[in-house]
């Protein structure tokens, strides 16, 4: 088995088109552009269908990285997994997290135990009518397994976060399907984002054995008892396939980083956030020599309209979408417990954690 | 000195016009309508200039209480202090908190120490051009002192929360002033809410000796080093004077309740929220026989555009006002630490706590 | 056949709770409260699920009219049809239109031809799972026929506007249905507004013979070739049945008013607006002695994402709902051609006019 | 005097990053990239401070044009004037209008009269504290005169539209000024957009002799009786100087195009729109052989809160900014009269036309 080392660097941005931080680190040698596997970002759009900050950020990064990699911008976009989650409501702060991976000859002597590892895979392109349905679930499950192998992770218990980027429906795509006599899961672009996220998350759950593989089309966005504890899915207008990134710990990794996770049962589950922090050495009695790199979490308005018995108004607000409400609230809680707003809290947690809750993963850097 | 007892009851609402919970408690005898001094509520509007859920809630309450009190609805509105804070973003849950006060012959034997007390006062009506300026500050300071006396509180250290309801400017009011040759502090209705909240808070700070009384017009919304640690001010379209409600602890109170507070230094100051909880017996090692009644806090987007060095986007969002962002985020944090979204988090914390932060008060009920 | 006279008075409001204009006209004798049949209003909320300005306006009107009618507010709400359409985007101006009806002994000598008449009917309460489906369509059709009879209109060609107020689904209602093992047409409150409006409009089309009666559940919000040219439907949270108001011209009416209509083929159909104006004597060569009372129109974002081949962005905007966009745009056009923003333009025109278009009716007052 | 020919091509876009239409026309030879002087666009963002669709569109265009011009993207941005106006509310349709200019040896024989001409100039970079004040006014006036000369226009009566792109304040810029001991006109980014637009428009009015040059800082956004009838100004985060583009008719132009204009007195001034159309041969009795190329207009919520005596709610809406309301409404009117939503209606008309109104210019293409 090959040994890899993984880097995780969080870089603040001054706007969706800002690549200066990353370029400076490449310039100084702190980041080797050829080692970049994935970039996850929080951009400051509305996180909805018409959030163009995501594609703008990707375009800016591809254009900037192209000469460094000797590729065209389009080739950069094929090579690196870009996952931009729109929406920095409340105290959330725009930033990107750059994941690098390099092979190393062998593990340094000082490293023991499992360390953070990363793997990646893609599905094929989907037809519009496949989004939010079993085809998307099954293809995603296959890609998750492939990404685990790519990460050198054999045990599902070592998988702590599976980030997926998935497509959505636009008017054009719905009409294209209709033109072929096919009905999409929904005709609403906005609703399609939920379907795509939900089916992708169920694909993770299937791959990790969290649920059985006998899911039906009608379970998506309905049977919320079916979920993954580590899936995080984001839909964007810019692609028609799923990109799967598996984050976990592996004995084959020689990285300085460790990842852990917990599951928030609802949007105010502070103990879960603290448990996730504790799982990588933070908490009431923090281990020395560790620094917080980033937190990755999903947030949603609980579909039953209440949190611990108290009514919330997120789902019935015509002015602000519920995903924006949820990111703001959960972002506020996590930022408070983490001490920073530069965390990755993404909206739309259908089948990602229990209804109204969501996964929360923490990456720590070990100083030695 | 007279001895009073104070009641604090939190009641969930199903909408801004919902009075059924209060009416049921009056019907059962749990609340004596004649004892109601003030009602603070969170209503589910946008919290901005055109948030009519506040006045709707007040109208519904006045209409419902009128026959119980043998008054007209208008007389009810004069008698009881209604403070409706619009905006239940994120996990915040619409509710009202009913404060009652009754004189009792003497303190029951079992009660020792200071207990929660409440006092109230009004300023005169302001002219539009007085809002956000020294006239509003000075009149508010006088009213705070009057309300302290009404609460039986002599020591400013016993004041833990001063809730003020204050006016805002509308196009009509700006024009009325202009017609008299007077220039208002701003011509924007939205901005005027900040001016009025800020000047009112400075009035509290003056009254409690937190700052000197030599404030100038130009300090309002500029010198954010001047603030009160216990002021909470909300502006609404429905009045032209300030209503001041002082909450604190007093040896003259025989109530079952206790109040404490802390100051959040910024919007992610989780330790301050925990300190406020601890001040009335909650926290890591909670005292038995106590239940949380409600938390009252103010939230705002830090005016310098950052929280602990990380940029936030609240002030530059044209789609969602920064007050909505801030309530959602701080509401998420407080709800997480309190275990409930039915807390009173109000937006617009100008001169209420340090810039970007705000006061947080907690009321506990002692079971015996 | 009885002879009736109908009054139509437009009154500007200063807010959703403002009843002063109506009360002044009752005080002066200009309006007999006992003759009020219906009040249609534009209130300044968001027009969505959480638009409380509608119920606030109704509550304020009922409370104010109660003593004038010797009824309780609740009885007033049962007696008069209140249809509040939320959303005064752009130049639209908040106002109410009061419709009165009185029997008269006989037609005055000076009146010839058909004059404006009004009729009203209700359906039974619907179950949540009936909304947006054939049950709502069939019951509505029956009520339209009943309202025509009430208006003294026999010929469907004399019907120029059918205003319907219909229910929507809330989380509670969806759960209530689910508790009985029933699935509602949608679980989204917002989407349910469209279903309810659409089914109600189809009911009008059936009653007026514009389409056949063999509609199926699955045609609602899909077969947009099925529509009524005179239906205008608004959904609100405050009721569970449909209220139907038929406006047309009748030989049995002795009123000073005349009504006409046209159908906008799309949201920029200026010629249709001008045709509607011309149908009651306005236009390039206006008839003397007539004044415009009000215009009633429906607006929607064309579901195919384009207007005359040019893409619009209303359906993919996560920040502003498409109904708000559409009201603003169509309101701007109609206000421009009418010379006033105090017109009734209501959003959500599903099955009301062709896809992307909507009915537009004009009421004129004849001075003699 | 040199003779120039001018091209004006409107191209629909599928998103802010879509350059395919322009590239196709360059590919087919329909547009010579070297001749492009300016590109005005409507992009589908919110038009506010955080509207990144503008800079994204510019970045995409610069990147695409760079290889065609043998320049770097940055050099393209310096060479071509890009004015992206954010906000396609209602029926407005995203598009760009490409303006080209080329010198020709002499006027073709068939062309008589004045034809459309275009000129351009820049101001120096402004300091943050100069925005919205006399420095910006005076520098803009100088640039307008320079752009007129560049267009070969000597008579101010031949100037029909002056498009200006101007800066805004961000938190950073406000702080930078404060750091130098300077106070900016406002600390609000959003309000700064209005100041910058207003001062720029006053600069046009000064240059064209519409008002005197004795403007004071305090007149900006206050003395709305001072305005230009042809100024159109848009603020954006991406620059610190003003870019001035003068559009008019000139005897030195050999172009196929003609431009005319009118001034809307308020947001519902349909006759003004019709007058502008008529000025270039459209209207009730249209001249043959002409086609409409585009309409350029400015829209705003009237600052006094009413349109022809009826209250509007645009200025007091906390959920939707007034610029979005105004664009939607005026866009609806102009689209209705023009028969297309692909028109350039831009928000924020401070000192551009009378208060609440704005300029409207029409470009026609003469077929021969």
From TrEMBL, chains A, B, C, D:
Annotated Mg(2+) binding sites: 300, 349, 352-354, 357
Pathway(s) where this gene product acts: Xenobiotic degradation; atrazine degradation; biuret from cyanurate: step 1/1
Molecular function GO labels: cyanuric acid amidohydrolase activity; metal ion binding
Superkingdom of the source species: Bacteria
Sites marked Important for substrate specificity: 323
Catalytic activity annotation: cyanurate + H2O = 1-carboxybiuret + H(+)
Chain segments annotated as transmembrane: none
Activity regulation as described: Inhibited by barbituric acid.
Binding-site residues, substrate: 54, 85-86, 197, 234-235, 327, 346-347
Domain notes: The monomer structure is formed from three repeating units (RUs) that share the same structure as one another. The monomer, the active site and substrate all possess threefold rotational symmetry, to the extent that the active site possesses three potential Ser-Lys catalytic dyads. It is possible that any or all of the three active-site serines may act as nucleophile (albeit only one can do so per catalytic cycle).
Name of the protein in its database record: Cyanuric acid amidohydrolase
Native species: Bradyrhizobium commune
Organism lineage string: Bacteria, Pseudomonadati, Pseudomonadota, Alphaproteobacteria, Hyphomicrobiales
């Amino acid at each position: 088995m090959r040994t890899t080392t993984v880097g995780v660097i969080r870089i603040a941005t001054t706007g969706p088109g800002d690549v200066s931080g990353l370029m400076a680190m490449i310039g100084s040698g702190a980041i080797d552009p050829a080692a970049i596997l994935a970039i996850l970002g929080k951009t400051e759009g509305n996180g909805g269908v018409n959030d163009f900050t995501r594609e703008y950020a990707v375009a800016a990064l591809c254009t900037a990285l192209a000469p460094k990699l000797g590729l065209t911008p389009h080739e950069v976009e094929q090579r690196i997994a870009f996952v931009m989650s729109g929406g920095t409501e409340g105290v959330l702060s725009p930033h990107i997290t750059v994941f690098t991976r390099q092979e190393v000859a062998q593990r340094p002597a000082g490293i023991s135990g499992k360390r953070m590892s990363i793997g990646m895979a893609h599905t094929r392109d989907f037809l519009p009518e496949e989004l939010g349905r079993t085809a998307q679930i099954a293809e995603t499950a296959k890609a998750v397994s492939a990404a685990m192998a790519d990460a050198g992770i054999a045990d599902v218990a070592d998988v702590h976060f599976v980030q997926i980027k998935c497509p959505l429906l636009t008017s054009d795509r719905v009409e294209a399907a209709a033109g072929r006599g096919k009905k999409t899961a929904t005709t609403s672009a906005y609703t399609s984002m939920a379907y795509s996220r939900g089916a992708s998350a169920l694909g993770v759950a299937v791959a990790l054995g969290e649920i059985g593989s006998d899911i039906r089309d009608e379970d998506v966005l309905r049977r919320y008892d079916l979920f993954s504890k580590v899936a995080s899915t984001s839909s964007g207008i810019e692609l028609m396939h799923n990109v799967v990134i598996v984050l976990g710990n592996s004995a084959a990794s020689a990285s300085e980083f460790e990842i852990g996770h917990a599951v928030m049962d609802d949007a105010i589950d502070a103990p879960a956030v603290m448990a996730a922090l504790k799982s990588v050495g933070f908490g009431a009695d923090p281990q020395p020599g560790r620094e917080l790199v980033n937190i990755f979490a999903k947030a949603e308005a609980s579909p039953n309209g209440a949190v611990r018995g108290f009514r919330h108004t997120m789902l019935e607000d015509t002015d602000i979408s519920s995903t924006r409400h949820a990111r703001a609230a959960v972002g506020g809680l996590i930022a408070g417990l983490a001490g920073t707003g530069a965390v990755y809290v993404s909206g739309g947690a259908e089948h990602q954690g229990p209804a109204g809750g969501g996964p929360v993963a923490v990456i720590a850097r070990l100083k030695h």
